[in-house]
Design a protein that fits this description.
Blueprint lengths: L1 H9 L6 H28 L3 E3 L1 H15 L3 H13 L10 H4 L1 H16 L2 H7 L7 H7 L5 H14 L2 H22 L22 E2 L8 H6 L13 E2 H11 L3 E3 L4 E5 L8 H9 L1 H23 L9 H6 L9 H12 L2 H18 L4 H18 L3 H11 L1 E5 L3
Parallel strand pairs: 2-3
Antiparallel strand pairs: 1-4, 5-6
The protein binds zinc ion (ZN) (2 copies).
Length: 400
């Protein structure tokens, strides 16, 4: 009797609170990695291939800790990319409302998984070996049951609570937060046709899935962090597996490259500018606006510090986030500085060229060529230099 009570109280480990907490975070993080690395980046988008042993471990672990079937997960997610923000999107906050996607993401997933036609159509190429047919797909519930038994063995009665938390935790973060908030709130690097957002620049907690706007811009890229200040822990793991010979990266998003001596902007320039709009505008601020500001401040004899930092920054986006009073101050600042005014006007014009999607590629290219020609005719050195660089912008794969 005592032995049984003793077992129920602490299982085989008799771990304290800290031990249980560490265990919980380790197992849930392993699940997050299995989802982002295996189900998402490898199986769904084919951005990376894992060594069969590691791939199988991920498959086993996602079965054991969530009971999700690879084919279903892949199909539902591919359909999300294919039908993003339409009424056929399995989990668009635009259609279902943010609360439904955030809190009831699992229900949406379950409904989507009953659509066998879509599962067959979008789930092509997923594992269909003996163990998949006889164990993982056939007895999806056996996985979480095995997890439950393991938890009880390790922690006694506490294993029940740990299992319950596990079953809430993963769906909430993976389905609710990524699919919900990741299409609803955050910042955007890329003007993708959907509403995908990056939640935080540091994808640390949800395996890098935080960078959901980047992911929608380059779905088959194994790497989600695309700006210098961004971090993707999933990519760090892939690099580690690669070093150990356990992973092969198949695709990485192209980065912005500059071809020397390109006389006129071409289709390649346009493609690069459109996919890296945000970076182009940042380049413009650093390469044109900031040096102009410094030069004008020096000429006026009162240094750059005389202009508040917030106003200086705002010049980079046309004062988009300023309140009215500050915007007026910004206008006054520009008013008496003709060179600064010119470079700010050119910034606004460039932004318009890149945002106007209606005229098609040819019209856009035409406006861009005009922009370059006029920019170089201003006689403003920094502007002309930027224009020459811009003509040569191209996409280059960050790695093979
Ligand atoms: Zn999405
Ligand atoms: Zn995806």
């Amino acid at each position: 009797m005592n032995t049984i009570l003793d077992f129920l109280n602490g299982g085989l480990t008799h771990a304290g609170w800290l031990g249980k907490l560490i265990y919980f975070f380790v197992v849930t993080q392993l699940t997050i990695f299995a989802v982002t690395l295996y189900l998402h980046r490898s199986q769904t988008h084919r951005g990376v291939d894992f060594h069969p042993v590691l791939a199988h471990w991920f498959r086993f672990w996602s079965w054991m800790s969530t009971g999700m079937i690879t084919k279903e997960w892949v199909a539902i997610h591919r359909k999300h990319h294919a039908k993003c923000e339409t009424d056929e999107d399995p989990h668009s906050p635009k259609f279902f409302g943010i609360n439904t996607v955030l809190w009831k993401g699992v229900d949406l997933y379950r409904v989507a998984s009953t659509d066998t036609t879509a599962i067959e159509k979008y789930g092509l190429g997923t594992p269909n070996d003996w163990i998949e047919r006889h164990v993982y797909s056939r007895s999806a519930y056996a996985g979480p049951t095995l997890m439950f038994v393991t938890n009880i063995l390790l922690f006694g009665i506490w294993g029940v609570a740990i299992s319950a938390l596990q079953m809430i935790w993963i769906p909430f973060w993976a389905a609710g937060v990524v699919n919900g908030i990741g299409h609803w709130w955050g910042y955007r690097n890329f003007e993708t046709a959907d509403m995908a957002t990056n939640l935080t620049p540091w994808g640390f907690f949800i395996g890098g899935e935080e960078l959901h706007n980047n992911h929608h811009a380059f779905p088959s890229s194994a790497k989600f962090a695309l700006r210098r200040f961004e971090f993707d822990i999933g990519w760090a793991a892939i690099r580690l597996f690669e070093m150990l010979g356990l992973a092969k990266v198949l695709r990485v998003a192209p980065s912005l490259d500059v071809r020397p001596n390109v006389q006129l902007p071409d289709a390649e320039t346009l493609k690069a500018l459109l996919s890296h709009k945000f970076e182009v505008m940042t380049d413009y601020f650093r390469g044109v606006i900031a040096p102009t500001l410094r030069e004008e401040a020096t000429n006026a004899g009162n240094g750059i510090a005389a202009i508040p930092r917030r106003l200086r920054r705002a010049l980079g986006n046309g004062g988009r986030w300023l309140d009215n009073a500050s915007r007026e101050r910004m206008a006054a600042l520009v008013e008496h500085r003709p060179t600064l005014r010119t470079v700010c006007d050119f910034r606004a014009r460039l932004a318009t060229v890149l945002e106007r999607n209606s005229g098609g590629a040819e019209a856009m290219l035409h406006s861009l060529t005009e922009w370059c020609r006029e920019a170089e005719a201003t006689g403003i050195h920094a502007l002309a230099e930027f224009s020459a660089r811009l003509r040569g912008y191209a996409l280059s794969p960050a790695r093979a």
